[in-house]
Write a structure and sequence with these properties.
By secondary structure, this protein is of the alpha/beta class. Helix content is about 40%, strand content about 20%.
Length: about 280
């Protein structure tokens, strides 16, 4: 069964009476080069467990099952289950779970489904509307995962993988850099999907730090400082932090002066160490 063939996919969907849901951001991959590259980038083996978010009709899932010891696919749309039963018949290392990645207890799921595995990775073609929330959940939940390989909207991928202190950086950039090393693996054109979205995509890889890379005394205050610094991007970081964090402008200004920072600097120009030191001083 060729799941990269447009007519084959159309026939399968029609047979099951399936129609695409805009609310769920459903765009199915039909490019024969993309999914094998995503699966291979994980460097998985029979001791690797993979969590897939949103398998769709199983195009990426099939490639993951060929390389990993076990794949657990989280699918929210129950209408896709009979389709997946057809397209992924024969794979005994696959389990499809009806779950919302933003609501399921991922730690318990990993403990239950991947006992005895040496490495746990996440791979997905993420709907654009939940890209950042899903990635943030995976990074911030202290899960036993090594890598995250996901396809995201090109603009989002560039921001996620940007260097802290550059024009593209945002609060999400700082968070990604805090927890992982990031890289853009390759671009994916909009014609690679059915139906075609309006924008191009990229596949990114996040390799989680095995040990803490940055020394932060109070993580909650650190991330609050970062979020507040970027919350009013047209303003200076000093004013944005003061306005949204409830800290007096004089106190923030004193912190900037102590660190030798220009009080007119914008958040995207601040380095990781700057955010850490600012959060500690205020």
């Amino acid at each position: 069964m060729n799941l990269y063939d447009y007519n084959t996919v159309k026939r399968i969907l029609s047979h099951h009476g399936f129609t695409f849901s805009k609310a769920l951001g459903q765009n199915f991959l039909i490019d024969p080069d993309v999914c094998p590259q995503m699966a291979q980038s994980l460097n998985a083996d029979d001791k690797t467990g993979v969590i897939e978010v949103g398998p769709g009709i199983g195009v990426l899932t099939k490639e993951l099952c060929k390389t990993a010891g076990k794949v657990v696919a989280l699918e929210l749309d129950k209408r896709l289950f009979p389709i997946l039963d057809e397209t992924l018949a024969g794979f005994d290392n696959l389990e499809v779970v009806n779950a919302d990645v933003m609501k399921v207890d991922l730690k318990s799921l990993i403990d239950e489904k991947f006992a005895g595995f040496n490495s746990i990775k996440v791979c997905a073609n993420l709907p654009y509307y939940i890209t950042s929330p899903v990635i943030m959940t995976l990074l911030e939940s202290n899960l036993a995962i090594d890598e995250i390989v996901v396809m995201v909207q090109k603009e989002a991928g560039e921001r996620l993988c940007a260097e802290v202190g550059t024009r593209l950086a945002g609060a999400v950039t700082v968070t990604v850099n805090y927890y992982a090393d990031s890289e853009i693996l390759f671009e994916v054109g909009k014609d690679s999907f059915m139906p075609s979205p309006k924008v191009d995509s990229v596949v990114i890889k996040l390799t989680l730090h095995k040990e803490r890379k940055f020394e932060v005394r109070d993580e909650k205050r650190f991330f609050t400082t970062v979020k507040c610094a970027f919350s009013q991007r047209r303003k200076t970081a000093l004013n944005s932090i003061s306005n949204t964090m409830g800290v007096s402008k004089d106190k923030v200004s004193t912190a900037f002066d102590t660190l030798g920072l220009d009080t007119n600097i914008r958040a995207e120009k601040l380095k990781m160490e700057d955010f850490i030191k600012i959060s500690e001083l205020i």
